[in-house]
Amino acid sequence: DAGITQSPRHKVTETGTxxxxxxxxxxxxxxMYWYRQDPGHGLRLIHYSYGVKDTDxxxxxxxxxxxxxxxxDFLLTLESATSxxxxxxxCAISESGTGFYEQYFGPGTRLTVT
Amino acid sequence: SQQGEEDPQxxxxxxGENATMNCSYKTSINNLQWYRQNSGRGLxxxxxxxxxxxxxxxxxxxxxxxxxxxxxxxLITASRAADTASYFCAASSNDYKLSFGAGTTVTVRA
Lengths: 114, 110
Prior knowledge:
The complex is a heterodimer. Chain A is mainly β. Chain A has strands at 4-7, 10-13, 19-25, 31-38, 42-51, 54-57, 64-70, 73-78, 87-94, 104-105, 109-113. Chain B is built from no helices and 11 strands. Chain B has strands at 5-7, 10-14, 19-24, 31-37, 43-50, 55-58, 61-66, 71-76, 85-92, 99-100, 104-109. In chain B, the strands form 2 sheets. In chain B, strands 2, 4, 5, 9, 10 and 11 form a 6-stranded mixed beta sheet that branches. A 5-stranded antiparallel beta sheet of chain B has the order 1-3-8-7-6, with no helix packed on it. In chain B, β4 (31-37) and β5 form a beta hairpin. Helices cover 0% and strands 55% of the residues of chain B. Classes of the chains: A mainly beta, B mainly beta. At the A-B interface, β4, β5 and β10 of A face β4, β5, β9 and β10 of B.
């Protein structure tokens, strides 16, 4: 795997609690992405970042926020977790825009909201 | 919305056979990418084909792209047990985002 780690790798939380997932990269790539993967849906983009403090929404951003204060870290926060946010979350990085470069994925975080 | 849609959803083949899966997309793209995911792992990039390319090879992988039909295919030749995985196409229609399909699950029988 490219130098991407995600923490925690597994988490069980209760409905209504805030949750923060962390993605850390050592590749100094400019672009970072958060996806969720659910059966039958493939990967869906939640938020992405194109630089420090530069972020934008993806197709399923409701209920999620992100922050990027350093090149290497991209945080995903569920402000008040709901059962519909039970999923596997993947972070990805890219050297530049996907017009020319592939994405490298982290190992994933399995989140269960009870 | 999903830009890439794979077909078939699942494929079971004998070791040594070829595996072919198809991907259709809806809008114009600047490139199309294929990824593999082993069970419980993250996605691994396999190959990227740009909109002005028609065919690309990488080892036992062959990808074609037909922009007039908005479709792509991935061929894995001489399959091995280690090729057992899910395969995803992802369409890039702007510089920052990929739209993934739901994937094709390939099982290679020994």
